[in-house]
Amino acid sequence: MKINPKLKQDLKSFLMENIQKEQNRVLVSSADILGSDEKKALSGKKFPDLNWEDAEYRIDKSIIAGVIIKVGSKTIDLSLTGSLSKLSNTLYEID
Amino acid sequence: MENLGIDGKLLLAQMINFVLFFFLVKKFIVKPFTTFLNQERTNEEEKNKLLEKLKKSEEAGIEAEKKMKEKMKKEFDVLFVEAKKEASIMRTDLIKQAEVDALEIKDKNNKLLEEEKNLLYREVKDKIIKTSLMIVENTLKDALDEASRKKVTGAIIKNYQGKVNFNEN
Predict the structure, then answer these.
(1) Tell me, what's the ipTM?
(2) Where along chain B do its domains lie?
């Protein structure tokens, strides 16, 4: 069965667009709903290069406090849970 | 002769008789007896010689046996001394080997002990870290109310100094 080249091209473009969107999509997890000041601080001063227009905000009580920002496959962990995890790793490294 | 009372014929006959008797005795009794006696003497002498020879042989045998015993004793002494020496060397070697083995076992046990100590240390450390983190986490969860959490979140965002290039990929 032969696939129509145009259809194939359209499908490829669609998939590429989706991948691109997914890669640039910002997902912010926090223990409580972020206030406008915090959102402004994130989008304005701290991470101005990110696409904040389509950012998704989620509540995750397990992180205690702070935020976790995910962009594509990258993650910035600014949560207390993350800090504790880093602390635990540091403690494991100390002999 | 007759006047003297000697009968000549009888005397002759007696003389002939005596000569015959002498001759017969000499021929049939004295000679075999002498031969027998000589034979007996010779036999006795041979017997004595043989006995002498046997005695000498026996003495030589005893002497040889004595010498052999002495020789064997000397050889035994030499062998005993050598065996003693060898046993002493073997004993020394065995002691050395045992010492080496003991040291190896000691080292091995020390290493094992050290490994177990390290393992125990790691296990205890792991438990302490996990327990401490659990306590801190639970305490933070219990102690922080919404306002405090927001405050902390604000402070974290405010104090974040890192710079990430998200356009790497």
Answers:
(1) 0.77
(2) 8-158
